[in-house]
Amino acid sequence: MTFTCERLQPVAPQLHIAVPRLISHKDWPRWSNYIKRLAKVYHAWEYCNPEMTTSEYIGQLVELPFTRIPPEISDFRIGLTSISDLEDSEIDRLTEAID
């Protein structure tokens, strides 16, 4: 998920937080504090914390279990709706994908 000022600003009225403008270097502390608070509210700070090292970030990743999803008929050709319309090469590909 990417955070930009445009995506965060519509949220601010709900939280009643004034959205600071980042115009010059002197605005940085207030602006970065706003971004950090908003990211923490939405449990996203661990994904955009600039002080976190790559190894710290990777250490937080959770491996999700792999779930095999069988192919749909339409995966083989746009507009295909029935298995009876498959060509021989597509039937071979379907058989390999299922096995």
- The helix/strand class is mainly alpha
Beta-strand portion reads under 5%
Largest sheet: none
The CA-CA distance between the termini, in Å, is 35 Å
Number of strands: 0
Cα gyration radius (Å) = 24 Å
Order of helices and strands: HHHHHH
Q: Which geometry do the CA atoms define?
A: elongated
Mean pLDDT: 76
Which residue ranges are poorly predicted, with pLDDT under 50 across at least 5 consecutive positions? 1-13
Question: Helical content, roughly?
Answer: 40-55%
What is the total domain count? 2
Counting H and I runs of at least 4 residues, what is the number of helices?
6
How would you concisely characterize the structure shown here?
The chain has 99 residues and is an all-alpha fold. Helices cover 44% and strands 0% of the residues.
Q: What does it look like?
A:
The protein is mostly helical and 99 residues long. The protein folds into two domains: 5-60, no CATH class; 68-99, no CATH class. The protein contains six helices and no strands. It has helices spanning 5-8, 12-15, 28-41, 45-48, 54-60, 88-98. The longest helix has 14 residues, at 28-41. The radius of gyration is 24 Å and the shape is elongated. The model is unreliable at 1-13 (pLDDT under 50).
